[in-house]
């Protein structure tokens, strides 16, 4: 099962901003994961891309990463970023503007050498194209160990950063400037939309004209079901649907997904896997994700099936961010702001990290305290936002760890549409008046507008729903535990995170139906260390 990407539906892109006096741009092209042709070369601005249906040319520049179904063409950088949700490069006589999308889900990594900033939408070429060593970013790794993914603009390497939500790099007359401008409809939402308006916005983001040749990742929750209901509303054609077992081992998701598929009369496929499949996919998935998150290892078998399905242009619909956008739709009193922030931080990963078996107490307590303080400092700007919890979750986990699933595992082979981060959908959702804190999930209300029959089927969102039978899959198997513990033991930077004898204790609990999150994240760190050892200036140490 190969992890190699095929840039079919979305392109590999790279470039240079500044005078390439060291002539490194040809080396960056040579390190590219796909053949890339130079499309623009004018002094201080260079741009290359692989051939792909997802590279869009407009009068003023190039854009890519389209995750919205609407055919709106980008007019300029601001319109592309904030209203269409595209990444792009826009050259002009004074220089150029390079930007990610409004939420920062589209990867743009940068590395400056001398007075030139090289960039690409993959991290690996920016490590490999230069003979200069790189340094592990211990602070970024500490945050990753807590959140299951990297935070803001950080990456595993000190020398390489990533454009964050709403960020642009502007080169003008030889000077490079980084700016951040989030759209006003996100920072200061206005209006009083209804649940019916939100249902209509989601329906608009799932056009019926595409559904007769589309695929849908279908779970037992509400997000994918909402997409299905929006597409079928008013008699739309039926997509094919695919489900796979969650790595927890419980089959409630697939059992309910099959019930939904039967009710909607879908052509439905269940992609199963066992412990050996998960073990075979784990390191391949880490390579494909470029170690951006320790999550999603169970999805590579599903992704392989989806890649070998319809043509690249046929859309794959995914429910990214549906829960985050609509599940926490209540207004918190000003006196509760700090408590709300602590609750969000805890559920994003701190609880699992603090409770992890075997972590050295000094690491567990010091790392969590310092990371929370840094995260809280950046989140303070959202204290007065009417839906602060939604915003904090979107900007922390969704844009980095969760978005990796559709955009790195399903794309670039398939065209992936994620309706719930469509700017028009987010704009309307943030304009719906708050609900009572006791019943603050918008999704059941919207689903009932679109399809009452699907709304009546149980979902895994309901804690009272039977999660079904347990079967050893992925990290619920002893083989997975032993494999990850061996990987950690082999790398001192990872092994030193645990108390003496702790990993042996974890191995002894093999078959306990779960692996501590710290073990999964440390195993990812160990794999990354082995992958990049020869390029690191010095071994990674946390003390």
List the SSEs and their pairings.
Blueprint: E1 13-17, H1 25-30, E2 37-42, E3 45-49, E4 56-57, E5 62-64, H2 77-84, E6 87-92, E7 95-99, E8 109-113, E9 116-120, H3 124-128, H4 138-147, E10 160-162, E11 167-172, E12 175-180, H5 184-187, H6 195-204, H7 208-211, E13 215-217, H8 223-232, E14 240-244, H9 252-264, E15 267-271, H10 275-289, H11 300-307, E16 315-317, H12 322-326, H13 337-354, H14 361-379, H15 388-402, H16 404-410, E17 415-417, H17 423-429, H18 443-450, H19 452-455, H20 478-489, H21 492-495, H22 502-508, H23 517-532
Parallel strand pairs: 13-14, 13-16, 14-15, 16-17
Antiparallel strand pairs: 1-3, 1-9, 2-3, 4-5, 5-6, 6-7, 7-11, 8-9, 8-10, 11-12
Helix pairs in contact: 4-23, 6-8, 6-17, 6-18, 8-18, 13-14, 13-15, 20-22, 20-23
């Amino acid at each position: 099962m190969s992890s190699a990407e095929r840039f079919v539906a979305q392109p590999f892109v790279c470039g240079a901003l500044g005078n390439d006096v060291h002539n490194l741009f040809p080396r960056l092209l040579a390190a590219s994961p796909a053949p890339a042709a130079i499309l623009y070369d004018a002094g201080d601005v260079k741009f290359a891309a692989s051939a792909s249906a997802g590279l869009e040319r407009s009068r003023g520049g190039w854009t890519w990463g389209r995750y919205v179904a609407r055919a709106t063409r980008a007019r300029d950088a601001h319109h592309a970023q904030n209203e269409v949700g595209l990444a792009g490069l826009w050259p002009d006589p004074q220089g150029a503007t390079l930007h990610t999308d409004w939420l920062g889900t589209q990867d743009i990594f940068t590395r400056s050498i001398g007075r030139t900033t090289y960039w690409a939408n993959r991290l690996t070429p920016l490590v490999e194209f230069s003979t200069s060593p790189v340094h592990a970013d211990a602070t970024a790794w500490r945050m990753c160990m807590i959140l299951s993914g990297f935070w803001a603009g950080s990456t595993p390497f000190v020398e390489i950063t990533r454009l964050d939500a709403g960020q642009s790099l502007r080169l003008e007359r030889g000077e490079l400037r980084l700016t951040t401008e989030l759209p006003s409809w996100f920072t200061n939402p206005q209006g009083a939309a209804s649940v019916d308006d939100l249902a209509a916005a989601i329906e608009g983001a799932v056009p019926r004209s595409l559904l007769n040749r589309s695929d849908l990742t279908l779970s037992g929750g509400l997000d994918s079901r909402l997409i299905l209901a929006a597409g079928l509303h008013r008699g739309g054609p039926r997509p094919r649907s695919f489900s796979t077992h969650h790595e927890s081992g419980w089959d409630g998701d697939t059992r309910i997904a099959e019930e939904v598929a039967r009710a909607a009369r879908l052509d439905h496929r269940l992609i199963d896997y066992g412990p050996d499949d998960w073990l075979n996919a784990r390191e391949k998935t880490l390579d494909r994700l470029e170690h951006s998150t320790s999550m999603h290892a169970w999805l590579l078998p599903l992704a392989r099936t989806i890649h070998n399905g319809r043509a690249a242009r046929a859309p794959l619909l995914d429910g990214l961010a549906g829960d985050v956008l609509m599940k926490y739709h209540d207004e918190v009193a000003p006196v509760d702001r700090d408590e709300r922030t602590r609750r969000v931080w805890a559920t994003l990963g701190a609880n699992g990290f603090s409770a992890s078996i075997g972590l050295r107490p000094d690491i567990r307590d010091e790392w969590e305290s310092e990371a929370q303080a840094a995260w809280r400092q950046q989140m303070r700007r959202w204290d007065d936002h009417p839906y602060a919890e939604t915003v904090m979750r979107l900007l922390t986990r969704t844009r980095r760890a969760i978005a990796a699933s559709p955009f790195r595992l399903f794309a670039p082979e398939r065209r992936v549409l994620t309706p719930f981060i469509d700017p028009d959908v987010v704009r309307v959702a943030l304009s719906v008046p708050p609900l009572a804190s006791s019943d603050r999930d918008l999704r059941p209300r919207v689903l009932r507008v679109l399809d009452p029959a699907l709304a009546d089927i149980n979902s895994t969102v309901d804690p009272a729903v039977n999660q079904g039978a347990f079967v050893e899959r992925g990290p619920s198997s002893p083989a997975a535990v032993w494999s990850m513990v061996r990987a950690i033991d082999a790398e001192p930077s990872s092994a030193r995170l645990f108390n003496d004898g702790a990993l042996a204790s974890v191995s002894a609990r093999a078959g306990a139906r779960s692996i501590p999150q710290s073990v999964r994240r440390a195993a990812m760190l160990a794999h990354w260390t082995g992958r990049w050892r020869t390029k690191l200036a010095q071994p990674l140490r946390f003390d």
